Amino acid sequence: MDSCKKLLFLVITTLAIAEMALAGDPDILTDFVLPPNSPPPDGNFFTYTGFRSLIDGPFPPTFKAVKAAAEQFPALDGQSVSLAVLIYPAGTLNPVHTHPRSAELLFLTRGTLQVGFVDTANKLYTQTLQQGDLFVFPKGLIHFQYNADPKSPAVAVSAFGSANAGTVSLPNGLFNSTIDDGVLALSFKTDVATIQKIKAGIKG
Q1: 122 annotated among ligand-binding-site residues
Q2: pLDDT in tens, 166-200
Q3: Fold adopted by 43-166
Q4: Exposed end of the chain (fewer CB within 10 Å): N or C?
Q5: Residue extents of the structural domains in the chain
């Protein structure tokens, strides 16, 4: 392979790797994807009724996310889209987490929220959202939402560019896992006893 062909091969390979790194859900070659051994679909397959319970329903005592992703709504498989309704009773928090496969576009439909995310340079971006505001959390970055109002609930709708955006909770992922306590203590420059206290608080 001469130098020109080698250069062309290198450029094509680099572009292919970059495309894979930027990709979200894979493209499909059909209009939609049916689960294995499914009967021919009708309108019911493309309808999700899991949000009906939210209409005029009571507010939960703690933060709650009601999802319409591929797991709950199989018609979304291959469509690169999903949705979640986020309900924040007064004073509740959606703890720090990431979505590895999608950005999140949050629309606040009720109340106020304090939101924020941290970029790869460890810069924190925050905002206090009012009803009707939109906020985008970039793909894969650590972020949170907090209803600081001690009396009033908040409700938001979040859209994702993936049928399975994934959610990695940092508190659970770090302190409710099988990562060795010594590794966590070294990572956070503390001692094992402190790590165990944090774990006990999360599990409690």
Answers
A1: no
A2: 999 999 899 888 899 999 999 999 999 999 999 88
A3: Jelly Rolls (2.60.120)
A4: C
A5: 43-166, 168-203
